[in-house]
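Let us walk through a complete example step by step. Step one is to write down the protein sequence. Step two is to encode the small molecule, zinc ion, as a SMILES string so that its atoms and bonds are unambiguous. Step three, shown after the inputs, is the structure prediction itself.
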Amino acid sequence: MLIYNLCQFSTQFTAFSLFFGFTLGRYLMTTLLGWAAIKLYLSRLRARISGKNASMQQIRKELLYSLRSILIFALLWAAASSDITGHSRLYWQIQEHGWRYLGFSFLLILILHDTFVYWTHRLMHQPLLFRYFHKLHHCSVHSTPFSIYSFDLAEATLHGLFFFLISLLLPLHNIVLGGMLWVSGIANVIGHLGYEPMPQAWLQSLGKLFNTTTHHDLHHTKGGQCNYGLYFRFWDWIMGTEYPDYEAAFLTATQNVTQKDSHL
Ligand SMILES: [Zn+2]
Ligand SMILES: [Zn+2]
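Step three: the predicted structure of the complex.
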């Protein structure tokens, strides 16, 4: 029995170490790429959407709190992947459900995750919950790529729980789960760049459906009263929570600095 328990502990500890390394590596890679894009390109091309830069003190806090969130995510995702409950539906063999299901499950989890984020995000903005769940994230009024996981303990647990619970409810290939974690990390970094990277024509095409940096930047600068979605605009449209002047703000944010100067 002791040997069995030791083996179980060692499996779970290995899973935790792997997920911690994976999540920390993903955070550093995506945020540093975002930071480099700002410094080398975006800040030379366009003005900051909010008009103000973040302080170094804010960035230090964001790094520290993100590290704590990464620890929580790693604990929960390691629990899911090492099947701590005995009911995990994660699988490795594609043949178990086929290629079509693999593609379908990716789309489904994307929509489910966006729905989960929209509704929990709105809930966390209720005055009773805000101070315990979401206040820390909004300390970053002028967001940076490092803000993405700057969460209160309760909010980090809530976000980590989504992937834990979904692995119990839906058959998911491990590649789909890993891919989704990358997609959500990249979408989060884009949302917190503080500079709009998309071209002006974006709103006439995919921008009708997908969010932009301007969309989430307005969420931070307008006191969290609008724009709650993560990947898509549809929940904000349906529920009437999109910032009324979002499209005008996007067009302003996509004016290049030289273009702006020539209008002065
Ligand atoms: Zn944010
Ligand atoms: Zn918020």
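Step four is interpretation. The chain has one domain: 15-257.
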